[in-house]
Amino acid sequence: DAKTTQPNSMESNEEEPVHLPCNHSTISGTDYIHWYRQLPSQGPEYVIHGLTSNVNNRMASLAIAEDRKSSTLILHRATLRDAAVYYCILTVWQAGTALIFGKGTTLSVSS
Amino acid sequence: DGGITQSPKYLFRKEGQNVTLSCEQNLNHDAMYWYRQDPGQGLRLIYYSQIVNDFQKGDIAEGYSVSREKKESFPLTVTSAQKNPTAFYLCASSMGQGWYYGYTFGSGTRLTVV
């Protein structure tokens, strides 16, 4: 499985934008880029995913580099509820593929 | 509302006992997954199932067993052969094309060996 590299931790202030980076230099052409987040003592929650083009939804935006070797999850205005562990995961374009988690980035948000 | 229900939320087991964790989904998803999470760590895949009556081992299947007799249900048994079962267990499901539609997780069962 292609691997991802994320910073261990990041800090942000409330109501400021947050850019969470993810490097995936060995990504293949059929790998989707997924982002999930996990609040303490809860199951992971879907945030966003994409293949080649930038993606936007109500939670966040996903900016994918032109060579697809890196991506950035953008939270436009951080809130205290966004404090969580954020996982960047590559999934193979194949039936029954499971998510394989790394250690993710722990985001802290201060008021 | 559709979702995944894991029960119980907390479970205590004596050493040497088998315990079964429940996972039920009403999302009509084809695939289901079990993960284990230790404190401060990411999730590790135990077992997954793409269709009824079929399942595959994940990275850490030793000491665990599963069944998939119904599409909606994917129970996990933690056997006495699992040497360090204390952990947070998470169940997930997806359409067959999970890479496209995304994955849904339950709220977890916290298992403690006493």
What does this 3D model show about the protein?
Chain A is an all-beta fold and 111 residues long. In chain A, the strands form two sheets. In chain A, strands 1-9-8-3-4 form a five-stranded mixed beta sheet, with no helix packed on it. In chain A, strands 2-7-6-5 form a four-stranded antiparallel beta sheet, with no helix packed on it. In chain A, strand 3 and strand 4 form a beta hairpin. Chain A is globular, with a radius of gyration of 13 Å. By secondary structure, chain B is mostly beta strands. Chain B contains one helix and eleven strands. In chain B, strands 2, 4, 5, 6, 9, 10 and 11 form a seven-stranded mixed beta sheet that branches. A four-stranded antiparallel beta sheet of chain B has the order 1-3-8-7, with no helix packed on it. The longest helix of chain B has 4 residues. The mean pLDDT of chain B is 92. The chains are: A mainly beta (111), B mainly beta (114). Chains A and B meet through strand 3 and strand 4 of A and strand 4, strand 5, strand 9, helix 1 and strand 10 of B.
- The separation of the N and C termini of chain A measures 38 Å
Q: State the helix count of chain A.
A: 0
Low-confidence spans of chain A: pLDDT under 50, at least 5 residues?
none
Number-wise, the strands of chain B total 11
Report the portion of residues of chain B in β strands.
over 45%
- Average per-residue pLDDT of chain A, rounded, comes to 92
The number of helices of chain B is 1
Shape of chain B: globular
User: Which series of helices and strands of chain B comes N to C?
Assistant: EEEEEEEEEHEE
